[in-house]
């Protein structure tokens, strides 16, 4: 299989040249991957990482494409599409081992059927376990993935398979230490199972949480989820944006949602450039009016991760 310019990549998975990325994201925005690689297993993953280092190509990770804006020019080098891979679920006595490619809604429904409570909040979060661990995704205080996490298994740029405990990740609101190590890849996670309840009760709770989330979010328009983190100790980002009079503001087909101001929706043909301009305008306006710096929750590729693959240590 041809990889890049006459370089062969010997993996059992798939490799595509100039593959469109917009359909693989929840925003439906962005250009193509120079090379899109879909590993079948860990051996494939190690081979792709090895080749990326040998060729000195940029490397990007893509799960289910939420919480993410891809540039209109696309991504250079290799984009690893991980959502189709690492989807195992192994239930033990007091913990669950999960592949990083498992979606959070699937995880929530699986545990609900087993009578395991506490994971209901995940039902409305569209990302994968791997991405959620990196960001400590959640829906509110006490409803974050870190509250249940025991440990993670990662592949490092040195091609090592290591484990880190939840404590070693330094988890806090929308943060883990992995954010500083963009080329450390989560491949599996273990979650503590502490609470039980009748499955029908858990499923009813999940349905109610999903109804509440859908009532607050623009579920009928492509979006990435929340654009900004809530500032510490103050008003939520959505409130600040709405009070600044920005609800409904539109740059081309990128629009601040009229449903919830912390969402930017794609009205059909939005470009990444339009979204970025809208984000910058929101940040500038909120700063001028309230003296509050809004920090992005989502990431922009390749802008945010253009550093070379680092052989750095996390501990």
Q: What is the fold's blueprint, element by element?
A:
Layout: E1 2-3, E2 7-8, E3 14-20, E4 32-38, H1 42-55, E5 59-62, E6 68-70, E7 75-81, E8 89-91, E9 95-99, H2 104-113, E10 116-117, H3 129-135, E11 138-140, E12 143-144, E13 149-155, E14 161-165, E15 185-192, E16 195-196, H4 199-216, H5 237-243, E17 250-251, E18 254-256, E19 264-266, H6 272-290, E20 299-301
Helix pairs in contact: 2-4
What does this structure look like?
It is a single chain. The chain is α+β, with helices and mostly antiparallel strands. The protein folds into 3 domains: 2-84, Uridine Diphospho-n-acetylenolpyruvylglucosamine Reductase, domain 2; 89-213, 2-Layer Sandwich (Uridine Diphospho-n-acetylenolpyruvylglucosamine Reductase, domain 3); 226-297, Uridine Diphospho-n-acetylenolpyruvylglucosamine Reductase, domain 1. The chain is built from 6 helices and 20 strands.
Poorly predicted runs of 5 or more residues: 1-7, 310-315
Structural class: alpha+beta
Order the strands across the largest sheet as they lie in space: 8-9-15-13-14
Q: Can you tell me the CATH architecture of the largest domain?
A: 2-Layer Sandwich
H/E element string? EEEEHEEEEEHEHEEEEEEHHEEEHE
Query: CATH topology of the largest domain, anyone?
Result: Uridine Diphospho-n-acetylenolpyruvylglucosamine Reductase, domain 3
Number of domain modules: 3
Strand content: 25-35%
Secondary structure tally, helices: 6
- The helicity comes to 10-25%
Indicate the radius of gyration in whole angstroms.
20 Å
**Biggest β-sheet: count, sense, barrel?**
5 strands, antiparallel
Q: What is the end-to-end distance?
A: 38 Å
